Every structure is written in C-alpha cells, then in structure tokens.
Amino acid sequence: MSRPRIVIVGAGFAGYRTARTLSRLTRHQADITLLNPTDYFLYLPLLPQVAAGILEPRRVSVSLSGTLPHVRLVLGEADGIDLDGRTVHYTGPEGEEGTLPYDRLVLAAGSVNKLLPIPGVAEHAHGFRGLPEALYLRDHVTRQVELAAAADDRAECAARCTFVVVGAGYTGTEVAAHGAMYTDAQVRKHPMRTGMRPRWMLLDVAPRVMPEMDERLSRTAERVLRQRGVDVRMGTSVKEATHDGVVLTDGMSVDTRTLVWCVGVRPDPLVESLGLPMERGRLLVDPHLQVPGRPELFACGDVAAVPDLNQPGQYTPMTAQHAWRHGKVCAHNVVASLGRGQRRAYRHRDLGFVVDLGGAKAAANPLGVPMSGPAAGAVTRGYHLAAMPGNRVRVAADWLLDAVLPRQAVQLGLVRSWSVPLESSSPEVARVPGRPEAGRPEGAGRPATPTTPDTQRSDTEPEGEQAGGTTNDAAAKTQPDSEPARSRPGGEPAGNQPGGEPAKARPGSEPAKAQPGGQPAKNQPGGEPAKNQPGGEPAKARPGSEPAKNQPDGEPVKNQPHGERAKKGPSGSPRASGKPRRAVEAAGPRPARGGSGRPGKAPRASGAGSAGKHPAAPSGPSRSAGPPTDPGPEPPANQPPPGPDIAPGPVKRTDGRAAEGDS
Fold first, then answer.
1. What three-state secondary structure class fits 283?
2. Distances from the Cα of 136 to the Cα of 36, 375, 411, 454, angstroms
3. C-alpha–C-alpha distance, residues 96 and 114, integer Å
4. At what angle do helices 392-404 and 373-387 cross, to 10 degrees?
5. Which residues have a Cβ under 8 Å from the Cβ of 552 and sit 6 or more positions away?
6. pLDDT number for residue 1
7. Where does residue 562 rank: exposed (0-12), middle (13-18), buried (19+ CB within 10 A)?
8. Cβ(230)–Cβ(173) under 8 Å?
9. Cα angle vertex 451, ends 446, 453, to 5°?
10. Would you say 10 and 107 are in contact if contact means Cβ atoms under 8 Å apart?
11. Based on the number of CB atoms within 10 Å of its own CB, is 385 exposed (0-12), middle (13-18) or buried (19 or more)?
C-alpha cells in the first residue's frame, strides 16, 4: 500500500505548525511536502525590531529544512489547484513550473497587505508584512535622516525627517514606537543643521490606539508613544498620497518622503480561484478546519474562516496566536482522516496579548492581567522567546548587545523601493527584474515587473531609488551601469512607457535597439545604439569599442559609420524575436546628468501621477544621431560577444588602462 501524500501550501504560523505536528504524528508513515516561496519561517511579531536595527534578519528567520527534518521542502508559489485531479501547480523561484499530487491538502497561504482605494497609496506607500519590506524600511529611514542632517533648507529637512505610519493596530503601533527611538538615537550623534528633530505620525480612523485590546492597555501604549514625541491622531487617515507628502482626511497637508502602510491584511488571493464558499475573502471551513464537501481539503490560518465556538455566529480573527493553534488542530484532523486518532474541533482560550513598545516599555495582559512598564517588557520578551520555534539564544544575545552597545545605523542597499511594492501577493519575496512574478499570472492580484528607466529617478536617492515609493515603484527600472536591462513580462520591450513611447536609455550607456516590441530606442548623445538584440542582428560598431563578432546568425560585424541605425527586416522594423530577452547595455563612462550638477544623479521627475501612470522622462542631453566628439581610442579586435544574461566584459584600451565604467 502506497504512503499517503500530504501537501501543505504556506509556511507561516499555521503551515509551519501543521508540518511540525504532522511530522511527529505520522511517524514517517506519510510523505509530507511543504510548498513555500522561502526556505524559512518568519516570526512576524519581531519584525519591527529588525526595522529598528535591534535584531538581525536571520534572528527572526527559522530554517525550514533545519527544523523540519522529515518534511520535504519545495520552493515555489502555488498558482493553481485542481481539486478534482488533486494536484497543486506551482512556479519555482527561477521560473520553473511543477505539479504536486496529493491525497490530503492543507491550505495555509497566509495574508497580504490590505489596500484601500486611496489615490497614490499603491505608488508611494510600503507595507510591513515581510522581511524585504523591513529591510527596505530600515535603509530608507536611515537614509532620510542622514539626508535631512546634511540639508540646509528647513523645508527639505522637515519633509525628510517626517515619517507617517497609517494604522494604529499592533504592527503600526510597534513600528512607530521603535522607529521614534531609532531616529532619535541617530540625531543624538549627528544633530540636524537646522536644529529640527525627527517627527513620527501615527494615523488611524479608529477612536483609540489598538482598539482590539483592553482600553487600559490602549491608554498605556498611547501614553508611551506621546512621551517619545509621536504625533498620534485618531479619527484621521490619508486622503491622498504624492511623492512630496500626504493629504489627510482633515484637510491638512504633511510634507514627507515616508509612508508606511499598516492598515491591515487580507487573505491570500489564491483561495479566491477555488470557487468554494467564502466569508470575506476567507475559505469557509467547519470547526474541524475541513472544507465542507471536500474531505481531502483542509484550511487554517488567515485564509480560513474558522467558526468561533466560544462566540457563536463569529469567526476567529486573523492573528498569529489563532494561526499557531489552528496548525496543531489541523494536523491532528489530517491524521484522523487517514484513519489514525480522533478528530478535534477548534476551541481557544484567550491567553492575552503583548505589544513591544521598545526599550523597557511594553503593554501586556497575560491571562487577562493588565501590565505596563518594565514588568510588561519582561513578560513580552519572555513570551516571544517561548513562542519562537528556534534562534532563541541568538535573539536573547542580540537583545543583550542592544542594551549595552549603540545601534549600527548604516544603509546596506540590499532592497530597492520598486522590489517591495505595496500591491504584492507575496510580500515575503522581493520582486526580481526581468521576469514575471512567479506564482500567478499577471493581473491576478500582482503588479507587473517594474520597467521605468533610471532617468526618471529622484536626484536625492542613491542609485536612483526614490523616497517613500513613487510612481516608479509600480514601473520597472533598469539595473545600474554594466548590468543588463531586462524586458517586462509578456513580451513587451524593456523600459517601454505607457502610450507606446520607446524607452530612453540612460546617459553614459548604450541603449537597447531592437526590442521585442519592434520599436528602436532613441540615440544617446555621442552614442551608437546597440544592435545585437533578440533576433540575431549582429552588433554594429559602437564608440570607443570594437564591434562584437560571430553573432548567433553567423554574420560578421560590419564597421558602420557613427549614427547608423539597425538593419531592418522585410517588414521595415528592426528584427526582434517573439521571446523577450535581456537587452545588454554597453558599459561606458557615466557623465553628469543634466540639471542636477552632480555626477550620477538624475533630476527629479515633476508631477507624480496616479496609479498606473508614469511621469515623463526629465530633460537631459540632446539625443543627436551624429557621431561623438571623442569616440576614444580603438580597442583591439576579437572582443567576445556578451551573453544574454551578463553584462559586457571589460573593454581594453590601447594605453593599457581599463576603460571607465568597465565591469
């Protein structure tokens, strides 16, 4: 008799607990497969401490393969479930596809950021549901304080050191509390030249902070926030968001570069495609966490609407505490469905809540006893250490070091603004340029991969990253110099803007010519368009470098005069294959861009648009098709052609020195 196959989708609180309990109960008599986009379980309650520099990212990331030794881990995102065929289709992290057959299926896909129809929020705000978002927020806040400290203009300084958090629940309250301590520690070492101090604002339409908690704990949390200088505004939210600030519902305009969206969460969109009974976006299940009419299908965590037996007519809320308990009950019921043990109905007893407010401050009500101050702080940290399935010693060590040593306020620059869009069905995975988002087709709750050129980035952000998330967050951006530009999913040319305008390549680099859409890129100042694009067209002579030879078509490269355009096919358009490929940009000197007066900085795009619109590219050097004034010395021949996935190799100069901008 074959071993039963159990597939678990998602490794959050519910999925991880289900897998761990099943591994113990089945005693190796079943094949357990865990499908998850990452190889770690994220302990979400400590994520604000990662953003504040208290804990390192790996402290809150528990290895799945290291703590679930008898569970098979498959990296990927489920994008389709065949209930009748009993298979789960998924897409791996590198775009590969696969199918997992099952005898029992547990859906524990979790939740994503909750969006509201507020103009500009999707483009300029960032959520706080995954590790990439926490890392981005830490870098972004650090950068804004450093830029504000160096600014002479009071208006610019005030905008950069103003941080707006929307949502006064658990997450928003902890982010504001820890963020205020983090920025205060920064300015103590490097005061603002204008004499200003960082300002944090916490907004919510609710009448009080953390309305789901006891009123006494709510007052305690609000008192701690106000003591730290946080501007708490209840009954107020954001009416509109732009690149330069936000407009509040009371009519007030606040200049800021940072908007953190902690309004709430919604169930993962995966369950909506099943066609089964739903309850406010959650899959309706019975008290045994089983889907009615589908004995092989179970659901738990945020995607499941579990009846609350202690409060008839209601469903358990979407909290980590309930999800963790769901997982244990679900595992017992899955084993019972296989003929071992008895089914259990889910009942819970409220053990209380804890909210870490940073330092020695916290608000807690363990077993219904309200506490505040250092005692609540000790209870809160003790609870987290007991609840974590791993890394306890490392977390405790980081807390000890934070108590005796100053925090390190540095920018790592590992996560860009466009890689953590608010409109994402997988906040735990940073977006990768050059390929569609894995898991679900475009348009099914996921944004398209960004493609906006670097020339539209802010002149105040390093490497073109914009503060607080601008309209460029929803559009794609090409990579830094010497890195290949990537095309958008669906075969559209890389960098194409809405309306059919061809993308403009960055100054200082060779533009991609024959894109899959058939529109050539415009000529750059003194630059020859790159020719070796998809379709096998050989590369033409480029200024300062020897043309690549022996292209895929076997046609040798012909030295063309400067300014000559690509050869055209029979249809009159540049050749391009139907399959998107990455356009390879030639590495070259990076001149100063017009308007900024500083090398490597692009002027800020004016007029931030609404969702789905892109600002016009700023004016720069004229795009003349004429020859360059100084093409540079002629390099030696036999330069190997660049591959489709790598940047061109170093170009040798006749004087023996490497050319500027060589990779």
1. strand
2. 22, 32, 9, 19
3. 29
4. 150
5. 536
6. 53
7. middle
8. no
9. 150
10. yes
11. middle
Q: 557-565 long-range contacts, Cβ below 8 Å, gap at least 24?
A: 560/528, 561/627, 562/528, 562/626, 562/627, 562/628, 562/631, 563/523, 563/528, 563/625, 563/626, 563/627, 564/528, 564/540, 565/513, 565/520, 565/529, 565/625
Report the SS3 class of residue 114. Answer: coil
Structure tokens at 40: 């770690």
Q: What gap in Å lies between CA 488 and CA 452, rounded to an integer?
A: 10
Query: Which amino acid is it at 344?
Result: R
3-state helix, strand, coil in the chain (%, to 5): 25, 15, 60
- Cα 584 to the center of its chain, rounded Å: 25
Segment (H or E) for 304: strand 304-305
* pLDDT value of residue 252: 94
87-91/77-82 β-pairing: antiparallel
Span 553-577, average pLDDT: 40
Count Cβ atoms within 10 A of the Cβ of residue 632 and give its class: 0-12 exposed, 13-18 middle, 19 or more buried. middle
654: buried, middle or exposed (CB in 10 Å: 19+, 13-18, 0-12)? exposed
Between CA 483 and CA 490, with CA 488 as vertex, the angle to 5 degrees is 145
Give tens-digit pLDDT for 619-639. Answer: 443 333 444 444 444 444 444
Q: Predicted confidence band at 366 (pLDDT cuts at 50, 70, 90)?
A: confident
* Averaged pLDDT for residues 3-26: 95
The H or E element spanning position 105 is strand 104-107
SS3 132: helix
Structure tokens belonging to residue 412: 């790592």
Check residue 612 and give left, alpha or beta (phi > 0: left; psi -120 to 50: alpha): left
Exposed e or buried b per residue across 148-161, where buried means at least 16 C-beta atoms within 10 angstroms of its C-beta: bbebeeeebbbbbb
Mean pLDDT for all residues in the chain: 74
Q: Which pLDDT value is given to residue 434?
A: 59
The candidate with the shortest Cα–Cα distance to 350, out of 308, 392, 391, is: 308
Tokens of 244: 């330069």
Q: What is the pLDDT of residue 193?
A: 79
Question: What integer is the mean pLDDT of 215-224?
Answer: 91
Rounded Cα gap, residues 127 and 426, in angstroms: 11
- Rounded to a whole number, what is the distance in angstroms from the first to the last CA of the chain? 58
Tens-digit pLDDT profile for residues 32-89 = 999 999 999 999 999 999 999 999 999 999 999 999 989 999 999 999 999 999 999 9
Q: Supply the pLDDT for residue 410.
A: 86
Q: Where is pLDDT greater, at 359 or 287?
A: 287
- pTM, whole model, 2 decimals? 0.66
At position 590, the amino acid (one-letter code) is R
CA dist 417 and 124 (Å) reads 9
Two tokens, residue 324: 């963790």
Give residue 394's pLDDT band: very low, low, confident or very high (50, 70, 90).
Answer: very high
